[in-house]
Amino acid sequence: MATTGDGLRERKKRQTRAAISQTATELFARQGFEQTTIADVAREAGVAKMTVTNYFALKEDLVLDRRAEIIDRLASAVRSRDPDQPVLGAIRAAFEHGLVRRDLRLPWPTIRRDGPRQRRIARV
């Protein structure tokens, strides 16, 4: 039986890659980038460390994997803004909307409050 380019094996590879990427994004948001290891990602995704590194050679690649989605989301925010809204205002609103929704489909930074007047952005 011949298989097509979009056979079961290829679909499984795409699903595994997406699951690893999603798991990493969630861990980065919850724990922070520096505190998350490849072993953490592998354990949470239910795969071996070698499987993670087969798809993503570096931990940074796990963040950059979604750059096209980020660019598309920000471009959409700019295109759909009110005519009198500045471009940076639309980008900021989209960013803040992602924070409020805690949308983990994209690696939005999370804001942590360290004290009553202090904020810091934890980049993921």
The CATH topology of the domain at 1-64 is given as: Arc Repressor Mutant, subunit A
State the CATH class of the domain at 1-64.
Mainly Alpha
Q: Structural class from helices and strands?
A: mainly alpha
In the sheet with the most strands, the strands line up as 1-2
Short précis:
With 124 residues, the protein is mainly alpha-helical. 59% of the residues lie in helices and 6% in strands.
Name some characteristics of this structure:
mainly alpha; Arc Repressor Mutant, subunit A; two-stranded antiparallel ribbon; 2 strands
Care to describe what's here?
This protein is mainly alpha-helical. It has a domain at 1-64: Homeodomain-like (Arc Repressor Mutant, subunit A), CATH 1.10.10. The chain contains 6 helices and 2 strands. It has helices at residues 8-31, 38-45, 49-55, 59-64, 67-79, 87-101; strands spanning 110-113, 119-122. Strands 1-2 form a two-stranded antiparallel sheet. β1 and β2 (119-122) form a beta hairpin. The chain is globular and about 50 Å long. The model is unreliable at 106-124 (pLDDT under 50).
Summarize the helices and strands and which ones pair or pack.
Layout: H1 8-31, H2 38-45, H3 49-55, H4 59-64, H5 67-79, H6 87-101, E1 110-113, E2 119-122
Antiparallel strand pairs: 1-2
Helix pairs in contact: 1-2, 2-3, 5-6
